[in-house]
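ok so for the tutorial part 2 we go from a plain amino acid sequence to predicted structure tokens. step 1 is just haveing the sequence, like this:
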Amino acid sequence: MKISERLALIDKIGRELQSRFSFGELDDYLTASGIAHPENVTANSKWVYARAALTPLPLSKIVEIADDLGIGAQGAALSAPVNWRDTGLVRLFISHISKEKIKATRLKECLLPYGISGFVAHEDIHPTLEWQDEIKRALFHMDAFIAMHTPGFSASVWTQQEVGFAVARGVKIISLKMGEDPTGFISHRQALPRLKKSAEEMATEIDELLSQDPLTKALLATAKAPPLIDDEIPF
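step 2 — the prediction. this is what the tokens look like for a chain of 235 residues:
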């Protein structure tokens, strides 16, 4: 396994542990797995804490933990997209058709103060990167998924593939009804209506949904938590 693949796998395991366990439960899991608790970790983040515990381990042990957590090797071998590397924020994929990129970008901006880092393909893919590969990276590493159901969304091959990917991964999915009803695998889900709400108001509602959902509430709480103060640093 390449170094980049190893680091990507550690990152993925760390985020899985972060979403599943409290700090106490995480320590119990490490102890039961024969993994030493990391020292001198000052960040108030289960993700950072877990990564510190996993990084020194041999590859065989890392793979063993991944298998125990049910993490597939295919996605783990892909590193996160550029704007999601080394972030403790909740990773939210914002699926949209190309002509609505301004709305998607605006929503992304409004979500950031809530500890949510949105991925907007037309905004976050650097010109030198292969766009399909970067979208796949984002889909593999997202913690949650939003579908912006504007007119034409259901007719787009790309957005429908993204929806299918989210359904297959089992992440939290939020449908925004913005002129079109959800179709296909997510047609049964209750959509959040746009009505006349601003992007700021929509961001508040999305934050509330993610804060209440079992799949994302722990991740979001950790993303919002203030960092621990290191008493060793002079005032």
